Amino acid sequence: MKNLLFISLITFFVFAVSADWDEGDGHKMHWPQEPKPQGLDVEFAMTMLADDWQCTWTGPVDDIHFWVSWKENLIQPINQISVTIFSDIPADPQDPTTYSMPGQSLWDADFDFALGQFERRPMLPDEQGWFVAPTDPTQPGTVIPWQAGDHEEWEQINITKISDLMQPFNQEEGTIYWLGLEIFTEDLSGVLQPTPFVGWKETDRNWNDDAVWMNIDPPDGYPDLYWTELVNPELGTSIDLAFVITPEPATIALLAIGGLFIRKR
C-alpha cells in the first residue's frame, strides 16, 4: 500500500510540473528572473537577445521558461525558437568601460511548435513599455512608453523535457552561462523569418551584468558577433531579461515527495 502511494505521488508531481512555471516552483540558477510588472519589453526583430545566469545545480538544462509580449497586441504565430547556450566572457575589472558578454557557443537547438516542442501560456494583461534596439550598435535604442490598448498582451513560453528530444546541455554548479534566444515565424512562402512585434520581457531583479543583444544582420564594418549591452537610454539603468532554468520534472517530483515525507515524520 505504501509503495502504491509512493508511485502515485511521483506520477502526480511529475504531471503537475511538466509544463508551466509558477512563482515558487523549482529552479537551478541564481534565482528565477521573473517578469517586471509594467516593465519594458525588448524587441527581437533582427536581433538575438541574451542574458546570463549562474548554475546552482550540476546537471542537464532540461526546461527553459521565458516571457514575451506583443507590441500593439499583434499576437503572431511562433513556428520556431532557436536557443543557444554560450560560455561567459567576464568584464575586465580594470576597465570600467567593459561588460560581460557571451563567449563560445556551447550548445544550440531549434524547437518547433508544430512538433509540440514548446508551449505558449497566455498571462493576464499588463501595461508595458517597449524597447527597440537600434540597427547601429553605437546608438542607444528607443523606448516607447505604454499607451492604452498597446502591448498589454504577454505570455510565458515553456520549452520542457528537452532530454526527451535530444542530448541536453549539462551545466556545472558555480559556472556562469548565457542564454541566447531567437524567435521565427513562417512567411506566406513557408520561409522562416524573425517574428515581428514580439519582445522579451524585462525582469524585476537584476543579476550580474546587463543583458545583451546582437544584430543578426549587422551594418558594414561590424563583426558578425558584436554584442551590445542593454541599457534603458532614458534612465541609464540596466536591463535584464525574464527567464528561468529548471530541473527535469522527475527531480522536482522527488524533492517535493521528500519534503512531504520529512514533514510527515
TrEMBL record:
Pfam families in UniProt:
DUF7901
Q: Which UniProt keywords apply?
A: Signal
Among its keywords, does the record have Hydrolase?
no
Indicate whether Secreted appears among the record's keywords: no
Signal sequence bounds: 1-19
Residue stretches making up the DUF7901 domain: 29-246
Query: By what name is this protein known?
Result: DUF7901 domain-containing protein
Write down the species.
Answer: Limihaloglobus sulfuriphilus
